[in-house]
Design goal:
One of its GO terms (biological process) is heart contraction. It is found in: Cell membrane, Sarcolemma; Cytoplasm, Cytoskeleton. Pfam families: Sarcoglycan_1. This is SGCD protein. Keywords: Cell membrane, Cytoplasm, Cytoskeleton, Disulfide bond, Glycoprotein, Membrane, Signal-anchor, Transmembrane, Transmembrane helix. With about 190 residues, the chain is mainly β. Among the domains are: about 50 residues, no CATH class; about 35 residues, no CATH class. Helices cover about 0% and strands about 20% of the residues. The chain contains no helices and 8 strands. The strands form 3 sheets. The chain has a 3-stranded antiparallel sheet with strand order 1-2-3, with no helix packed on it. Strand 7 and strand 8 form a beta hairpin.
């Protein structure tokens, strides 16, 4: 009924041997670290649920939630595969790559939702929305493009506030003051 203590000024090593006295597993507790040498390392709850395991092929975290508390976040030097990326309630979620590209790929699509707030995408040079086989749908009560260039006015002195949205052959958009017919052809100099 008493606890068992192993005490050492250097380390305590526990070896598990086979019948030929070859070491199968080793646990070394020392002043600098605790080391486990084995084919597989596992941590389980009292009920037997797997919390953590590691072997030559993979590391598995079996807990319901993985929290990384470092102020600098988490660094994945290669790639990460997950069915869900979510921030804590009332906290912002940031996916960033300060010096390289950020790529998200999925064969059946990627969904980004902001149920209770705004979604913001910013970049230094070019933001591209591309659909190879489908379409891009902007579905909103208001769609604003505040910095589009405007073509020259076709009727002198007109003060109307109705514009036609025009598309250049290279895909660039511009506004042209609306007329009784399309005024896009008149203002194609904006496309240059």
């Amino acid at each position: 009924g008493n606890p068992l203590y192993f005490q050492s000024a250097r380390n305590v090593t526990v070896n598990i041997l086979n019948d030929k006295t070859k070491v199968l597993t080793r646990l070394v507790t020392g002043p600098q670290a605790v080391e486990a040498h084995s084919q597989k390392f596992e941590v389980k709850t009292l009920s037997g649920k797997l919390l953590f395991s590691a072997d030559d092929n993979e590391v598995v975290v079996g807990a319901e939630r993985l929290r990384v508390l470092g102020a600098e976040g988490t660094v994945f030097p290669k790639s990460i595969e997950t069915p869900n990326v979510r921030a804590d309630p009332f906290k912002e979620l940031r996916l960033e790559s300060p010096t390289r590209a950020l790529v998200m790929e999925a064969p059946k699509g990627i969904e980004i939702n902001a149920e209770a707030g705004s979604l913001k995408a910013t970049c230094r040079t070019e933001l591209r929305l591309e659909s190879k086989d489908g379409e891009i749908t902007l579905n909103s009560a208001k769609i604003k493009l505040p910095n589009l260039p405007q073509g020259s006015s076709s009727s002198a002195g007109s003060r109307q506030k109705i514009y036609e949205l025009c598309v250049c052959p290279n895909g660039r958009l511009f506004l042209s003051q609306a007329g009784s017919s399309s005024t896009c052809q008149i203002n194609t100099s904006v496309c240059l």
